[in-house]
């Protein structure tokens, strides 16, 4: 088998397994996995910017929340149907990321981290400020009747699982394709050696901006999907915590790998889930495991796999 | 006609005049060597040409067009290529990906690999296609950098000390590569190795303290007393 084929088989294989799991998983894990898949799509979006382009953002909650509120407010304030609401969420994410990219990409390194963090914080405060519409910290619920997409009730666990699967599948296949396109290769080149990429004639700013928008829009898709599938929109999703999560997930799973974001999200979710079942000091256990991982698998789980066993893994 | 020319080109680094009021003309098809002692301003001068740094004053034109205001990537896309003095390859990517990135600016699809094969053949790295660039020896990284320049098929190729770190046999191969190339490409070559300069250059420009000290054929430069004292060492 050629390398491209093996890669395709591996990634499609994961999707097949995820699809099949819904028939065997007990209800509790079934629900968890739906959640994990949507959050993993968020991590996939984050990974395009951090893992492939080499830009560390601390403000991705802004995009996640833009998608979530773009969708949620359309339903809640304007009585829109789920599909146009989802599109509104995507558009909100695309616009916000375009604006943020345009401003933040004037800076580099630590300054970029700080600027993205500040913009996301401003977004969070905006959500609180317009509490009349957003209901601030408390958030608002999207009623079951408002979550029926083309006669499919998204609050039903089976439908919800399938929708989550679609969101994740699209984001995964998109990245897999992206890293094989000339555009994706240039992003990697910029991550590796920006000055060299520029001196080969590539417009570095334009490529980075496109990466921010792509990353932000996928994050917004995840945010919109999360709100719609789980029926709740709240300010905590715009908080700094939700900017740190995708960074952690991607670091754990392996930055700059296509599978890393999913593996990291799954791992972290169950790490916290299992350790909180054992003891009330679960954060301690989770913390220790995370430290061990950074010591022994600094490239993340999939990154280590690539280093040791499968050099060509994208 | 000049492919490249500068007028009054200067660069000041906090009071240090690295390049000072340089008027420079490079006719199409020429191999021009740029020589001068360490710190003479050679790298700074070519960086001003390709837009890596902005001048304090003066202008650059390429192919009859003023390019002083263009950012680096646009100048490169007009047909310039620049190889770095301090080796700058994509160290974590394969040799073939390094060259592909250069080639994809002008060809797409299967032709990319054809170009990659061709230029790696020319510099003698054809058997190292799949190696990680950072694992190559220093000399081979220099050759890779030259291969990337070739893959761009530029009209003007600027090479900043390309033979530094190469073995004697590789230097010999480099000389004939440059001569072959000169039928299609104008070359601006910064070089410390005098045998390379004397055997390849049509015209030599000598830079000293950021100023043009002399310009002429290899024989003229060799005979120039000022150049002897500034650079070649007296006698
Ligand atoms: N970014 C910079 N900031 C400050 N000074 C600089 C900078 N770049 C170069 N210089 C100074 O400008 C002068 C010219 O440097 P340049 O690198 O152009 O010389 P060069 O002729 O290429 O030398 P070499 O043969 O050693 O490569 C030197 O004195 C150098 O220290
Ligand atoms: Mg130099």
UniProtKB/TrEMBL annotation, chain A:
It holds the Pfam family BPD_transp_2. The chain crosses the membrane at residues 36-55, 85-105, 112-131, 162-188, 209-235, 247-269, 281-301. The keyword Membrane applies. It comes from the Bacteria. Keywords: Cell membrane, Membrane, Transmembrane, Transmembrane helix. It is found in: Cell membrane. One of its GO terms (molecular function) is branched-chain amino acid transmembrane transporter activity. Its main location: membrane. It is a multi-pass membrane protein. GO terms for cellular component: plasma membrane. PANTHER family: ABC TRANSPORTER ATP-BINDING PROTEIN (PTHR30482:SF17), HIGH-AFFINITY BRANCHED-CHAIN AMINO ACID TRANSPORT SYSTEM PERMEASE (PTHR30482). This is Amino acid/amide ABC transporter membrane protein 2, HAAT family. It comes from Shimia aestuarii. The lineage of its organism: Bacteria, Pseudomonadati, Pseudomonadota, Alphaproteobacteria, Rhodobacterales.
UniProtKB/TrEMBL annotation, chain B:
Signal peptide: none annotated. Keywords: ATP-binding, Nucleotide-binding, Transport. Gene3D superfamilies: P-loop containing nucleotide triphosphate hydrolases. GO terms for molecular function: ATP binding; ATP hydrolysis activity. Residues 4-234 form the ABC transporter domain. GO terms for cellular component: plasma membrane. InterPro entries: AAA+_ATPase, ABC_AA/LPS_Transport, ABC_transporter-like_ATP-bd, BCA_ABC_TP_C, P-loop_NTPase. It comes from the Bacteria. This is Amino acid/amide ABC transporter ATP-binding protein 1, HAAT family. The lineage of its organism: Bacteria, Pseudomonadati, Pseudomonadota, Alphaproteobacteria, Rhodobacterales.
């Amino acid at each position: 088998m050629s390398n491209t084929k093996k890669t395709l088989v591996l990634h499609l294989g994961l999707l097949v397994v995820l699809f099949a799991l819904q028939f065997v998983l007990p209800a509790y894990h079934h629900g968890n996995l739906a959640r994990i898949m949507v959050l993993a799509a968020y991590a996939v979006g984050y990974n395009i910017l951090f893992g492939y382009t080499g830009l560390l953002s601390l403000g991705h909650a802004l995009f996640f929340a833009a998608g979530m509120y773009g969708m949620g407010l359309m339903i809640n304030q304007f009585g829109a149907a789920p599909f146009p609401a989802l599109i509104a969420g995507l558009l909100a994410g695309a616009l916000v990321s375009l604006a943020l990219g345009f401003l933040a990409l004037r800076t580099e390194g630590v300054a970029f981290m700080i600027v993205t963090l500040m913009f996301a914080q401003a977004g969070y405060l905006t959500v609180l400020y317009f509490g009349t519409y957003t209901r601030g910290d408390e958030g608002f619920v999207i009623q079951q009747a408002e979550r029926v997409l083309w006669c499919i009730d998204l609050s039903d666990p089976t439908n919800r699982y399938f929708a989550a699967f679609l969101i994740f599948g699209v984001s995964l296949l998109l990245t897999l394709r992206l890293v094989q396109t000339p555009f994706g290769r240039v992003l990697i080149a910029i991550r590796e050696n920006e000055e060299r990429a520029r001196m080969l004639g590539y417009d570095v700013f334009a490529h980075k901006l496109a990466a921010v928008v792509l990353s932000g829009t996928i994050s917004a898709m995840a945010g919109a999907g999360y709100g719609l599938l789980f029926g709740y929109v709240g300010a905590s999703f715009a908080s700094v915590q939700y900017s740190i999560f995708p960074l952690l997930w991607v670091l754990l799973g392996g930055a700059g790998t296509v599978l890393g974001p999913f593996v990291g999200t799954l791992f972290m979710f169950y790490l916290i889930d299992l350790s909180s079942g054992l003891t009330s000091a679960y954060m301690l256990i989770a913390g220790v495991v995370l430290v061990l991982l950074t010591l022994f698998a600094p490239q993340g789980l999939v990154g280590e796999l690539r280093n040791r066993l499968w050099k060509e893994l994208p | 006609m000049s492919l490249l020319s500068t007028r009054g080109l200067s660069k000041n680094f906090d009071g240090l005049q690295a390049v000072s009021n340089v008027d420079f003309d490079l006719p199409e098809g020429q191999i021009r060597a740029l020589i001068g002692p360490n710190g003479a301003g050679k790298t700074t001068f070519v960086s001003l040409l390709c837009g890596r740094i902005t001048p304090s004053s003066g202008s650059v034109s390429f192919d009859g067009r003023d390019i002083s205001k263009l950012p680096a990537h646009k100048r490169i896309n007009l047909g310039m290529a620049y190889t770095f003095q301090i080796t700058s390859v994509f160290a974590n990517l394969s040799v073939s990906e390094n060259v592909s990135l250069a080639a994809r600016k002008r060809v797409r699809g299967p032709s990319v690999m054809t170009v990659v094969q061709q230029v790696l053949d020319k510099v003698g790295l054809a058997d190292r296609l799949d190696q990680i660039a950072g694992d190559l020896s220093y000399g081979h990284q220099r050759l890779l950098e030259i291969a990337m320049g070739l893959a761009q098929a530029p009209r003007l190729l600027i090479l900043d000390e390309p033979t530094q770190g190469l073995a004697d046999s590789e230097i010999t191969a480099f000389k004939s590569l440059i001569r072959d190339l000169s039928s299609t490409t104008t070359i601006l070559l910064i070089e410390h190795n005098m045998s390379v300069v004397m055997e390849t250059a049509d015209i030599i420009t000598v830079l000293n303290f950021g100023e043009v000290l002399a310009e002429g054929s290899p024989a003229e430069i060799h005979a120039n007393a000022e150049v002897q004292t500034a650079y070649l060492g007296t006698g």
